[in-house]
TrEMBL record:
Keywords: ATP-binding, Glycoprotein, Kinase, Membrane, Nucleotide-binding, Receptor, Repeat, Signal, Transferase, Transmembrane, Transmembrane helix, Tyrosine-protein kinase. It is found in: Membrane. It holds the Pfam family Ephrin_rec_like. ATP binds at K563. It comes from Pogona vitticeps (central bearded dragon). Residues 49-227 form the Eph LBD domain. It is a single-pass type I membrane protein. The lineage of its organism: Eukaryota, Metazoa, Chordata, Craniata, Vertebrata. This is receptor protein-tyrosine kinase. Residues 531-792 form the Protein kinase domain.
Amino acid sequence: MPGSGRPSPPPPRPPWVLLPSPALLLLLLLVLLPGGTLRSGLDSAVGSEVNLLDSRSVMGDLGWIAYPKNGWEEIGEVDENYAPIHTYQVCRVMEQSQNNWLLTSWISNRGASRIFIELKFTLRDCNSLPGGLGTCKETFNMYYFETDDEDGRNVKENQYIKIDTIAADESFTELDLGDRVMKLNTEVRDVGPLTKKGFYLAFQDVGACIALVSVRVYYKKCPEVIRNLAIFPDTITGADSSQLLEVLGSCVNHSVTDEPPRMHCSAEGEWLVPIGKCMCKAGYEEKNNTCQACQLGFFKDLPQSQRCTKCPPHSYTREEASTTCLCEEHYFRKDSDPPTMACTTPSPITNVKKGKVAKNSISLSWQEPDRPNGIILEYEIKYFEKDQETSYTIIKSKETKITADGLKPASVYVFQIRARTAAGYGGFSRRFEFETSPVSVAASSDQTQIPIIAVSVTVGVILLAVVIGFLLSGRRCGYSKAKQDPEEEKMHFHNGHIKLPGVRTYIDPHTYEDPNQAVHEFAKEIEASCISIERVIGAGEFGEVCSGRLKIPGKRELPVAIKTLKVGYTEKQRRDFLGEASIMGQFDHPNIIHLEGVVTKSKPVMIVTEYMENGSLDTFLKKNDGQFTVIQLVGMLRGIASGMKYLSDMGYVHRDLAARNILINSNLVCKVSDFGLSRILEDDPEAAYTTRGGKIPIRWTAPEAIAFRKFTSASDVWSYGIVMWEVVSYGERPYWEMTNQDVIKAVEEGYRLPSPMDCPAALYQLMLDCWQKDRNSRPKFDEIVCILDKLIRNPSSLKTLVNASSRVSNLLGEHSPLGNGVYRSVGEWLEAIKMGRYTEIFMENGYSSMDAVAQVTLEDLRRLGVTLVGHQKKIMNSLQEMKVQLVNGMVPL
Ligand code: AMP
């Protein structure tokens, strides 16, 4: 009745109606399973728990057995995904002596000796049941029975071991079902130690009203973890609830043990008390629990160091995971120095003191630098008259003092000093300025005019003598050596090209009136009896080139190359022949062919040089096609560039730089050679007459040198680019068989050689830079050396090759810019020239691409069985034509 106060109690209902409906159970499940995470299947880890059974995740029949049959029953419902919900219920509260069993299927314990059982259930409050209070129970029992296999299901009830009596407790979730409050209980029990492979669980009802919503059986483990760079594996907890298992860790990759790493796995699956640790070994550092290699430019010398450190100044690494950094060229670090120390050149000299000063001389002394970085081999003292820097003198001294003489009186001189150790030269000191004394004008103030005039005349004469002496001493624009004491060596420079320690200016032997004088100034005379000739190795312009041995008394025997001047030579031929020695003798560099000496006092006249086992570079590369690594090729190029840098520093322009004029020894060291005196290149078969009459190796020569004979170090750089191309293509002829005229035209129009096959992009870019039309835009040799050094230090930068599709030779394919005459396949090409009959032979012998076909020689054709001369001609002519087209379609800049 409305408004009559408390609502009347609901009418009694049969007990099963009071149980939550399957749909309601589903709701319960969803509420109780946050994020559904517990819906994982067998064996999945829940935090540190591994499920052995989860009734909610079993898709098919659970296989559980109830007896008697009218006791526990499964509610056959499905969830929204049509997955079965395995809920068992029993509610025989009105009947006496209930004993209803529900047996699970066999559960493997998977090696765990202690397992946990989590039950979720609802239990009807007996007070709410009308009339059944006498028989109604509010608990049920849980049992287990251990067995190694599935045979134990039929054992008797009394063989089961009781785990516990389960009652509803406070840990429930209340659900307002409208007219009733349902309580979902969660109870967890553990069992252990288990000794067999598996077990059954059983639930015994003795007259309660229960819905068993889920059963989850699991064990706990300490999950795999990396702690202190040691890996601790998945570890199943111990059988005892208070047990701590000690576990040994193993060091992660690239790490080493400091103190053996150990940890303890608790019964709750937690790792406790880490002891000991691993450390990343030298060259590796810790990142995200792993040891990562130090990057290029970084190093780590000891496992104990925490991090990779940047290489100290003037040092570098060649590879990742470096334990130390290498010093750059000319930089140095003592063995006893820590690897964190910068590589340095000797430290500059700071403390320079003036000693005795006279009108023509100044004495200086200085202190050894504080940190010389090795034994000081000598000092170099550079000085010049103030504001006359282009004309300077260099004195080398082993002592820390010198006297600079031959100076002008009453003049200010600038001095700079540097030290040399095995590591090379240090920096120059700052400039020190000192003034010579004036010419003595003693008592001039109270003397008569005559003595003053006499003194003036004397001074004039002295000055004139000094000036004449000075001019005479520097007459040959270049340097002259004037030995002073054995500890000192003195050189004068005019308009010097000195950029490197010890590098002098090249003197053109033409400036000597008597070429014999030049050759004896720059080359040692060797006694013919010291030379034994072994065999002929080549033909030079003036005579044979032989190999042999040189044994100078007191020195060790050397293998040498001997160039001979053929009999019946003219005086000019002799001069030109020896001219090469006069030039070569001025050079001293590891990448310039070294002159041992000359034989001029007996016949035959000979030039003796160091022996280069592998002969000329072009022939050597052709013989060893494809045999070298990119780094080896770049190493060769670096050597050539270094030799050329030396020559350009000396002010020497080579004019005929080409692979045929580079010699290579057994260590693959390349040396620049061929220093013909005339440089009109009479001796070079590649040299051709230009319209202006000069003879020039067109394919190697810069356009400005061809057009108006502007030969400079920049034109040598152009030639160097061609040498790079020759080296990377293993001695291929630049511009193939194009005529010289076509080459000049193509280059003038801005076309450049295409990249050789498999050429690193960085190298091809350097070639293109060397072939800049504007010679000032080309790199200098020192820059080239620097670029190549960087590439060598960082080999991965050479991995990017010129894109195959951008290589013009590949453009013979469908992207060819060549228009007519473009062949998509070897077959198409042979068909087009009516030689289709050979297609199969070409393909079978590996000539399956136009790239491969481009390499075919006449000999190859014969080998392939193309024996008819007419056919050979047709094929070779067509190939020739294609190559010319190819070059005409060269890379436009
Ligand atoms: P050249 O007259 O300098 O062009 O020399 C002619 C040939 O002799 C070269 O192409 C080399 O094959 C060989 N040759 C010249 N000099 C040497 C050397 N120093 N060591 C080995 N072979 C050499």
